[in-house]
Amino acid sequence: MSEVKSTITFRSCGTLCSILAFGPNAKMALAKAKARIEEIDDTMSAFKPNSFLNQISQNAGKSPVKIPGDLLMVLKASLALGLESGGAFDISCRPLSALWAFDEVKTEIPLGIAIEGALKKTGLSHLHLDAKESTAYLDQAGMSLDLGGIAKGYAADEAKRILLENGIESALINLGGNVLGLGAIADSKPWRVGIRNPLSLEGAYFTILEIHEESVVTSGVDEQFFIEKGKRYHHILDPRTGYPAATHLLSTTIIGDSSMIADGLATACFVLGIKDALPLLKHYGYRGIFVQEDGGVYANFPMSPNAMV
Fold it and tell me: Which CATH class is domain 47-138?
């Protein structure tokens, strides 16, 4: 492996992104990867008024919107995961997340009638995709989409593709916690990724994973939450109820080949809880680590005996 090393750090997809790459063409490859990530953000962001994703939401109940092929592919993958998870993953739940507003300073529970109203504006059965025409259509006015649980993973996969196309055989991509390792580091050693202890105020790791050509994605609730009458209300909502997922989990970490799939599974598995998440992980052939509120750690694969929070 070449020892020529380059790094790039920037903000995109609503988070801090960093990529480390080795190789003589690393600097050029990183610039191309950054441009592609930014292009995906411009296309798939729920927070950019002119994004193609928002055009679908703005035309809900009106007319289909012609969209790029990459967005169509991510929407298809989202529909498949929504179906396979029994609705635990749902990109149409933006009316709910906007109501709870965890991205703002939120300290109160929405009224039940408001949650019921928002639920009526969700449901993947209302999203219609036409592959031949490359269009997407929400058939009910007031609906809106959010790919925050899957688009970063797709962006990481695309960054990997571009690095490979430009001769990069060793890199570590980190898009706000969506981590993807390409090749190996010096001396053919695998990349090592720390999994944060959600109970640690200092952000300490409770285990270290070694990965090769894999992605690691964690969904957790230790940052966006508030306490009301002794109960924690966090930002990972159950699309089926409209309330924060009540699975007694603090985080889920998913390890697998595709960062996009791992991204979506991290949310779906958190909402499902350990018991119902295991068949889904088996279906995809991915590994998972679950940290419970009582500090217990469960994984569907052998872990280090020291992996405790």
Answer: mainly alpha
